[in-house]
Amino acid sequence: MESIIYKVLLAFVGGGFLSLLAQILIDKTKLTPARILVFFVSLGVLVYGIGLYDPLYEIFGRGVATPLLGFGANIAKGVKEAVDKEGILGALSGGLTASSAGITLALFLGLIFSFIFKTKQKRM
Amino acid sequence: MKRITELKRDIRFVSFSAVGGYEEGIGPLGKNFDIIDNSGKFGQKTWELAEGEMGRICLNTSFTKSGLSHTDIDIIVAGDLQNQCVATSLGLASFGIPYIGVYGACSTCTESLMILSSFMNSNPDIKYGAAVTTSHNSAAERQFRTPIEYGGQRSPSAQWTSTAAGSFILGDRGKVRISSYMPGRIIDGVTSDGSNMGAAMAFAAADTIKSYFEESGEKSDEFDYIITGDLGRVGSDILYDILKNEVFGFETIHRDCGLILYDSEKKDVHSGASGCGTSASVLASHFLPMLEEGKIKKILFLSTGALMSPSSLLQGESIYGIAPLIKLEYIEDI
Amino acid sequence: MDINEKKRLIKKHSPKSPIVKNMFFAFLIGGLICALGEVIFIIASEFFDEKTSQTIVTLILIFLAAALTGFGIFDKIARVAGAGTLLPVTGFSNAVVSEALDSKSEGFVLGVGAKIFTVAGPVILFGISSGVVYGIIYYLYTLFMG
């Protein structure tokens, strides 16, 4: 039980810290939210590429896997495994394969929900 | 360069109305609005059509108040915030009145009153003319910013586009006269930050106000108020800073429609209201009634527009501002 | 009035974002979402392997964010949370679903179909493009060094 609480706490700290970092980027630079997302996905690929991601993942678990950094790292991991298996062609096939479930679900839900829900006007 | 035109014809506000949505209804001026639709949909299926319908309802209310019908109106000058002013075109089509569409961003209200009074001044055959201005929060968010359900944070300098319309019928009766107008110049607002448009427009407002007093030779203490459209908190503060040594007592007689429409104590309004419906609805629901009752006698009214497009912002172009001005006076008939 | 004077005035009068408050809520809510992810992961791990459990976490969070977007609740949380809801996959899901709901009035093909990619498109594009670059570098590395 204790180790479970410990793991959840570490995920909280990891995810919280990355979000805080992104918040500073939004408030202090002129980066728009869309650019922040792109930045962190690409950063995820880089962090994985230089071998930093796995040690972080071991410590923080979902704290680094759930933010878009993990999304990027997942793409890099998929690319690496595909290159190991099928050579240079893996550089093209690995990324989307690894991230396919999340992307597909988000897009599919977008389509389905656009049938069901209507937008409501914003309130202050 | 001569910028002020004195109107020789006695052109007056026959009637005027304001229509708004939920936030406007619960605001300090809510009870003065003629119609409030809390859904913001005005019975339409899209936000874009809702904006047009809001303008139609608003003009219809002015018809009812004046006892006139659409066949009495010779010309209509109107505009909104949507691409190609399509809300106004679709909303006002059913009246069949000759129409001039105006895009002045948030300066549309003053710009259309200026154009309309100029038409009427030069052509005495025009007995009655109408001006309508609308903006809709949901339609503007969709066009200029992000989807309505998108989760984002607003910058403290950001303004809230109002869901509001103002309509005015000008003719030869009424108690408030448009006595002169002055078109604005295109002034560089030096920022390309779309969430700080009040700041960008402040320089245009300063240019118009300064030029007006220089050219007319009038004194600021002749006026009850000098009113700007939607500079908000940030823009108003910049304007005070610029004009503090130029226009005597400016801060005390200045009012900004963007700071009047919502209650900044109770609501998370950030810098204030924006959108061309802001100045139109505040003029129709607040300042014109005060003028008509003779509580105030003379005002300068400027709507302030931020001249930009979503593309120009993405391309990093600076936001230019414009601030046309009209002078309104209470006329006591003997 | 020259440009620098105008810039000075804008800077002087523009309020700063409440950065400490924003940072606090970004940390709190971003952290809570990841903690929720960890709880889901621990439960899923009882039944599935690590990779599948990780995918389940992503899918459940995407679903929750999509549903909150549909019911019009997500944007209210995000107004406080800022990057706290943006950075976890919840932000990606919200961007996709909000675009879809918003553009329905423009039709399903060029409305929903095209605009659903407004934010998702850049994320996927730069994600997979970085992946391709990394893949090529990694391939060359294994070729010469491996």
Shape of chain C: extended
**Count of alpha and pi helical runs of chain C:** 8
Average pLDDT of chain C works out at: 95
> What is the number of strand segments of chain C?
0
| Assembly annotation | heterotrimer
The pair of chains with the biggest contact is: A-C, 80 and 75 residues
**Main sheet makeup of chain C:** none
Query: Which regions of chain A have little confidence, pLDDT < 50, spanning 5+ residues?
Result: none
Mean pLDDT of chain A: 94
Number of separate structural domains of chain A: 1
Distance between the termini of chain A: 43 Å
Number of beta strands of chain A: 0
- Spell out the helices and strands of chain A N to C: HHHHHH
Helix content of chain A: over 70%
Strand content of chain C: under 5%
Number of helices of chain A: 6
Radius of gyration of chain C: 21 Å
Principal-axis shape of chain A: globular
The major beta sheet of chain A can be summarized as: none
Helix and strand content put the structural class of chain C at mainly alpha
Structure overview:
The complex is a heterotrimer of chains A (124), B (334) and C (146). Chain A has one domain (2-116). Helices cover 82% and strands 0% of the residues of chain A. Chain A contains 6 helices and no strands. The mean pLDDT of chain A is 94. In chain B, the strands form 3 sheets. In chain B, strands 1, 2, 3, 4, 5, 7, 8, 10, 11, 13 and 16 form an 11-stranded mixed beta sheet that branches. Chain B has a 3-stranded antiparallel beta sheet with strand order 9-15-14, covered by helices on one side. With 334 residues, chain B is α/β, with parallel strands linked by helices. Chain B is built from 11 helices and 16 strands. In chain B, 58% of the residues are buried. The model of chain B has no long low-confidence stretch (mean pLDDT 96). Chain B starts with a strand and ends with a strand. Chain B is globular and about 55 Å long. Chain C is built from 8 helices and no strands. Chain C has helices spanning 3-13, 19-45, 50-70, 74-81, 83-86, 89-102, 108-115, 117-144. At the A-B interface, loops of A face α5 of B.
